[in-house]
Amino acid sequence: MMNVTLLLAFHYYFGLFITYVFISLIENLRNKFKRVSKMVSKMKKLFVMILIFIMLTGCNSNESTGEKGEFIGNPTAENVLEGNPEANIFMYSDIIYSAGVSWVDEMNLTKDKQITEIAQQKSNGEYFENGTANKLTVGTKIFSVKERSDILIAETKEGDIKYFKLVEG
User: Which fold, 74-166?
Assistant: First the structure.
Protein backbone atom coordinates (compact mmCIF):
# COMPACT_ATOMS: atom_id res chain seq x y z
CA MET A 1 0.00 0.00 0.00
CA MET A 2 2.93 2.23 0.66
CA ASN A 3 4.12 1.75 -2.87
CA VAL A 4 0.71 2.76 -4.21
CA THR A 5 0.64 5.86 -2.00
CA LEU A 6 4.15 6.70 -3.05
CA LEU A 7 3.22 6.10 -6.67
CA LEU A 8 0.10 8.27 -6.34
CA ALA A 9 2.10 11.05 -4.66
CA PHE A 10 4.77 10.85 -7.36
CA HIS A 11 2.09 10.90 -10.03
CA TYR A 12 0.39 13.88 -8.34
CA TYR A 13 3.60 15.93 -8.02
CA PHE A 14 4.76 14.95 -11.49
CA GLY A 15 1.40 16.15 -12.85
CA LEU A 16 1.78 19.43 -10.95
CA PHE A 17 5.30 19.82 -12.31
CA ILE A 18 4.17 19.17 -15.90
CA THR A 19 1.25 21.58 -15.42
CA TYR A 20 3.63 24.21 -14.01
CA VAL A 21 6.02 23.75 -16.95
CA PHE A 22 3.16 23.88 -19.44
CA ILE A 23 1.67 27.02 -17.85
CA SER A 24 5.11 28.65 -17.74
CA LEU A 25 5.63 27.79 -21.41
CA ILE A 26 2.27 29.28 -22.34
CA GLU A 27 2.99 32.44 -20.29
CA ASN A 28 6.41 32.73 -21.91
CA LEU A 29 4.91 32.36 -25.38
CA ARG A 30 2.19 34.89 -24.56
CA ASN A 31 4.81 37.42 -23.35
CA LYS A 32 6.86 36.84 -26.49
CA PHE A 33 3.75 37.26 -28.60
CA LYS A 34 2.97 40.54 -26.81
CA ARG A 35 6.52 41.74 -27.46
CA VAL A 36 6.26 40.67 -31.11
CA SER A 37 2.86 42.32 -31.35
CA LYS A 38 4.27 45.53 -29.84
CA MET A 39 7.25 45.33 -32.18
CA VAL A 40 4.97 44.88 -35.21
CA SER A 41 2.91 47.84 -34.03
CA LYS A 42 6.07 49.96 -33.70
CA MET A 43 7.26 48.83 -37.14
CA LYS A 44 3.91 49.87 -38.65
CA LYS A 45 4.21 53.31 -37.06
CA LEU A 46 7.81 53.64 -38.27
CA PHE A 47 6.79 52.62 -41.80
CA VAL A 48 3.99 55.21 -41.86
CA MET A 49 6.36 57.92 -40.57
CA ILE A 50 8.96 57.07 -43.23
CA LEU A 51 6.28 57.08 -45.92
CA ILE A 52 5.02 60.51 -44.79
CA PHE A 53 8.61 61.83 -44.69
CA ILE A 54 9.25 60.62 -48.25
CA MET A 55 6.02 62.18 -49.47
CA LEU A 56 6.74 65.51 -47.77
CA THR A 57 10.30 65.75 -49.01
CA GLY A 58 9.19 64.79 -52.50
CA CYS A 59 6.51 67.47 -52.56
CA ASN A 60 8.70 70.15 -51.07
CA SER A 61 11.64 70.25 -53.49
CA ASN A 62 12.46 73.66 -54.92
CA GLU A 63 14.71 72.46 -57.69
CA SER A 64 15.13 68.89 -58.80
CA THR A 65 14.51 66.66 -61.75
CA GLY A 66 11.28 64.86 -62.42
CA GLU A 67 10.64 61.28 -63.51
CA LYS A 68 11.73 61.84 -67.10
CA GLY A 69 14.65 64.14 -66.20
CA GLU A 70 12.74 67.36 -66.83
CA PHE A 71 13.59 70.33 -64.64
CA ILE A 72 11.26 71.23 -61.79
CA GLY A 73 11.46 74.78 -60.43
CA ASN A 74 11.89 78.15 -62.07
CA PRO A 75 13.70 77.61 -65.37
CA THR A 76 17.23 78.90 -65.81
CA ALA A 77 18.55 80.52 -68.97
CA GLU A 78 20.38 77.29 -69.67
CA ASN A 79 17.12 75.28 -69.42
CA VAL A 80 15.30 77.63 -71.80
CA LEU A 81 18.09 77.74 -74.37
CA GLU A 82 18.53 73.95 -74.28
CA GLY A 83 14.84 73.57 -75.15
CA ASN A 84 14.84 76.41 -77.71
CA PRO A 85 18.23 77.77 -78.84
CA GLU A 86 16.46 80.60 -80.72
CA ALA A 87 14.60 81.87 -77.63
CA ASN A 88 14.81 85.61 -76.88
CA ILE A 89 15.38 85.89 -73.12
CA PHE A 90 16.85 88.08 -70.39
CA MET A 91 17.24 87.81 -66.61
CA TYR A 92 15.81 90.24 -64.07
CA SER A 93 15.53 89.63 -60.29
CA ASP A 94 16.82 86.07 -60.72
CA ILE A 95 13.90 85.23 -63.05
CA ILE A 96 14.08 84.51 -66.78
CA TYR A 97 11.76 86.52 -69.05
CA SER A 98 10.99 85.25 -72.55
CA ALA A 99 9.69 87.02 -75.67
CA GLY A 100 7.55 85.44 -78.36
CA VAL A 101 4.62 84.32 -76.19
CA SER A 102 1.70 84.81 -78.58
CA TRP A 103 -1.02 85.65 -76.07
CA VAL A 104 1.30 88.19 -74.38
CA ASP A 105 2.15 89.79 -77.75
CA GLU A 106 -1.57 90.28 -78.44
CA MET A 107 -2.16 92.24 -75.20
CA ASN A 108 -2.47 96.03 -75.15
CA LEU A 109 -0.17 97.07 -72.31
CA THR A 110 1.01 100.41 -70.97
CA LYS A 111 4.68 100.96 -70.11
CA ASP A 112 5.16 102.13 -66.55
CA LYS A 113 8.57 102.71 -64.93
CA GLN A 114 12.02 101.75 -66.15
CA ILE A 115 13.18 99.00 -63.79
CA THR A 116 16.48 97.87 -65.28
CA GLU A 117 18.76 97.98 -68.27
CA ILE A 118 20.56 95.20 -70.14
CA ALA A 119 24.17 95.19 -68.90
CA GLN A 120 25.62 92.30 -70.90
CA GLN A 121 24.81 90.03 -73.79
CA LYS A 122 25.68 86.31 -73.70
CA SER A 123 24.62 83.46 -75.91
CA ASN A 124 25.51 80.79 -73.35
CA GLY A 125 22.73 80.36 -70.77
CA GLU A 126 25.12 78.88 -68.22
CA TYR A 127 26.60 82.30 -67.35
CA PHE A 128 23.42 84.38 -67.12
CA GLU A 129 22.96 86.80 -64.24
CA ASN A 130 20.62 89.73 -63.63
CA GLY A 131 20.85 92.20 -66.51
CA THR A 132 22.00 89.57 -69.02
CA ALA A 133 20.21 88.96 -72.34
CA ASN A 134 20.95 86.70 -75.27
CA LYS A 135 19.48 88.89 -78.06
CA LEU A 136 18.82 92.35 -76.60
CA THR A 137 21.73 94.74 -76.94
CA VAL A 138 23.58 96.26 -74.00
CA GLY A 139 21.85 99.45 -72.85
CA THR A 140 18.32 98.29 -73.78
CA LYS A 141 15.88 99.75 -71.25
CA ILE A 142 13.38 97.41 -69.55
CA PHE A 143 10.02 98.72 -68.28
CA SER A 144 7.32 97.34 -66.01
CA VAL A 145 3.71 97.50 -67.24
CA LYS A 146 0.74 98.96 -65.40
CA GLU A 147 -1.64 96.08 -66.10
CA ARG A 148 0.39 93.02 -65.01
CA SER A 149 3.36 92.15 -62.82
CA ASP A 150 4.46 89.10 -64.86
CA ILE A 151 5.15 90.99 -68.11
CA LEU A 152 7.94 93.44 -68.89
CA ILE A 153 8.61 95.52 -72.02
CA ALA A 154 11.99 96.06 -73.65
CA GLU A 155 12.30 99.31 -75.59
CA THR A 156 14.37 98.64 -78.73
CA LYS A 157 15.15 100.56 -81.96
CA GLU A 158 12.90 98.13 -83.84
CA GLY A 159 10.01 98.67 -81.40
CA ASP A 160 8.80 97.41 -78.04
CA ILE A 161 9.15 93.71 -77.22
CA LYS A 162 6.96 92.07 -74.55
CA TYR A 163 8.57 89.52 -72.22
CA PHE A 164 6.74 87.01 -70.05
CA LYS A 165 8.03 85.90 -66.63
CA LEU A 166 8.95 82.18 -66.67
CA VAL A 167 8.10 80.64 -63.31
CA GLU A 168 7.11 77.16 -62.19
CA GLY A 169 3.46 76.50 -61.61
Answer: 2.170.150
